[in-house]
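Holo prediction. Input below; ligand is shikimate-3-phosphate.
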Amino acid sequence: MTVGELKTIQFDKPVVAGSLKVPGDKSISHRAIMLGSIATGKTTVKGFLEGEDCLRTIDIFRQLGVSIERNGTDVLIESPGIHQWKTPVGELYAGNSGTTARLLLGILSGSSVNSVLTGDDSLSKRPMKRVTNPLQAMGASISGASEGDFLPLSIKGGALKGIDYEMPVASAQVKSAILFAGLNAEGITVVRESAISRDHTERMFKQFGANIQQDGNAVSLQSGQELKGTDVVVPGDISSAAFFMAAAAMIKGSSIKFIDVGLNPTRTGIIKVLEKMGASVEILEQYGENEEPYGIIRVSNSQLKGIVIEGDIIPTLIDELPIIALLATQAEGVTIIKDAEELRVKETDRIAAVTNELIKLGAEIEATEDGMIIKGPTPLKGSNLKSYGDHRLGMMAAIAALITEGPVEIENPSCIAISYPNFFEQLSDLIKKGEDE
Ligand SMILES: O=C(O)C1=C[C@@H](OP(=O)(O)O)[C@@H](O)[C@H](O)C1
Ligand SMILES: C=C(OP(=O)(O)O)C(=O)O
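Structure of the complex:
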């Protein structure tokens, strides 16, 4: 039941079971629109995510003069190419989407248009210097409050030069922004990362005909390459599937088969974590090796134990950490999450938010500077939970309701549409009545 912006969820000892095809991957959907707009000619996208963040990306490229027609999850892009874009009328609004804003800063810097990029309250508090610093070193003209750290930012597109840049944070958004700028920067652009972050940009550059080299943790690109429109198929988003993987892993008698879910190795940290905690994970089929790997996997309940999650695996499961924290409350022993300070600069401070909300349910969880320490297993009780306008927090609260004694009330659940518009429908489809003890 939804009352204004409050949704109450209560189940009577449910199990989750069945087959699930989650919506398209958010990161890949953004990039398909971006590259289809930079390239010359026609691009088709199948399996596009109709989430609010990706719809913002479409609106922005329409303002730049690109023709984008959408019929549900099918998109047709016809672009004159980045050099023929028109100066937009009005501001470019990225809404809540960090990916839209940061990648666009790189793209717009190397274009020939002038623009102003804005976002909602949450996005306007998220750091942009990580992107504007290297872009300014490439010669980009970007100005705004706090030396370009926060939106709104004005970008004057123009001549750039290549850079050899060692990233201080492992971030696919920073890496991608620099690579996009590198497409139109004189000479070679090299980006070096401390731990490998999602590589969707690199894979999709190749699909659009660009020559891009990956050598260990370094990615390099020669400028002046003309991209040509192509056909992109977007697999299911493993970050969305993760909520139901966690539910299947922690609820007795549960098992879910995930159809056509993305299995790019830079995103599958959640699978490694589930296996290490003792859940049953079976990879039933795998396809699409050279573009974006995807496949069919089954996750089933089993006895779970606490583990340590740290180091290079963190960028491969960064958006899954809220749901992993909930999962850890049901595992025997202690789970320690470290090296995840990036969580503090997401849609909300996810370390503080997850800890506050899970404590309300009775969890034994403690926030640290760069992560969380969770002791389990703990029976959870219902409570009123805030989403903080953060889709991942909203979905964590809804999945928690599957295991609480008593109802969970979620404040502002509509933010879930940012990445998973049909989340509640798919949740109801998976709920089955469990056996009484
Ligand atoms: O490049 C991307 O599509 C994303 C990268 C990650 O952010 P960072 O690059 O800030 O780690 C992730 O949290 C975000 O949801 C999507
Ligand atoms: C952090 C996220 O997205 P973005 O940075 O694009 O807002 C997310 O989807 O969890």
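The chain has two domains: 2-24+235-433, 26-233. That is the main takeaway for now.
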